[in-house]
Structure formats: structure tokens, C-alpha cells
Amino acid sequence: MNEMINQFIDNEVKGADVVLFMKGTPQFPQCGFSGQVIQILDYLGVAYKGINVLENDSLRDGIKGYSNWPTIPQLYVKGEFVGGCDIVREMFQNGELKETMETKGIALEHA
Question: Which pLDDT value is given to residue 110?
């Protein structure tokens, strides 16, 4: 894997409490799965940083290697990989996502 991309991803993941690697931007998601994760985060009132992997092929490939997870979007909380759309949706539905955010000290505006 490209060391520069890996370092960039590492810095992003560790530089913000909640980071979403996604297709498109939080304002204009370019895939339904990314859009679903944004809706969940917005519903909980979580402040997060969205990173558009479509702007850079190396980043799109690099994030898959970084997490050892084949799909995008990918959600990170406090430097730890949480999961993709299905996992985030399931965690949201059973209350686990809110609990994870609270346990890690992430402020929730609407919860």
C-alpha cells in the first residue's frame, strides 16, 4: 500500500473524533449506502468529518487496505474502525451506535 496514503488515512482517522470515508460529501452523497450512514449520524446529532474517496483512486483503494474492509462507506470513532453501512445501520437500530458514541465521549445533539 502507498505509504503516503496510509499516513494520510491514519492522520485523518486519529485527527477527528468521528470520521466517515464515503462516496461524495455529507451534503451530496454519491451512493445510497453513504447517504444512509449520513442520515444516521445526522439523526443522532454527531459531528463528523466526511472524506470523499471518489476524489482520489489511491485513497479509495487505500482505505480498503487500511481497514481490511472491502466496501465504502467506512465509519471510524476515536481512531477505531466501527464498520460499513450494514453494521452502522444495525448498531443504530439496536441502540449500540448511540451507546458506543456516548461511551467514547462523543457529544450527541439529538439523542
Answer: 66
